[in-house]
Amino acid sequence: MRTRIGSLVATALLSGTAVAQEVGECDWRNTASSILEPWEEFTRTFANGAVRIAVIDMVEPGVAPLHLLVLSPPYDELNIRQCRIVTLEGTRGFADLDFAALDAAYDPAVGLIFTLPVRYFDIDLADIRETTLRFTLNQATGQMGAQFVQ
Fold first, then answer.
1. In 3-state terms, the chain is what percent helix, strand and coil (to 5)?
2. β-pairing, 66-75 with 81-87?
3. DSSP assignment string, 65-113
4. Is 131:19 a contact under the CB 8 Å cutoff?
5. How many CB atoms are closer than 10 A to CB 118?
6. Cα Rg for the chain, rounded, in angstroms?
7. Of the candidates 20, 25, 27, 55, which has an alpha carbon nearest to the alpha carbon of residue 40?
């Protein structure tokens, strides 16, 4: 796993104590300059190229800079895919993502199911924890969800 743990001083920038995984609409984090390089290692496509997932590195906060960018169906009236950010909570991301271990499965009742080992800063413990992130994508509706699983 690529280590990406910053100084604990950065924790002063973090707010809240609950750990929640979020899927939100793209925002200032979805710029091409934020995609972690080399792109060949930190972007992947699924569903015959209709779904693209990329690692976004916002650099700060140093202990939680990484997010996932997801481009996927459904398409809008201009034939543009929806854009979503999978993150820890708010603008706080993950400390590390084992993107090489990203796995995908398909369940007709749910859609695409992605799993990925992640590390995140636990504010309550003031320490880095490891877990597995699971997020789902229904390409027909665009609905996405995310949660930690063991």
1. 10, 50, 40
2. antiparallel
3. -EEEEEEEEEE-TTS-EEEEEEESBTTB-BSEE-GGG-EEEEETTTEEE
4. no
5. 25
6. 15
7. 55
Question: Across the chain, what does the average pLDDT equal?
Answer: 86
Q: Which helix (H) or strand (E) holds 122?
A: strand 111-122
User: Which two structure tokens, joined as six digits, stand for 135?
Assistant: 């997020």
pLDDT at 111 > cutoff 50: yes
Cα separation, 26 vs 68, in Å, equals 10
pLDDT band for 45, please (50, 70, 90 cuts): very high
Torsion of CA 60, 46, 131, 9, to 10 degrees: 0
d(CA 111, CA 23): 16
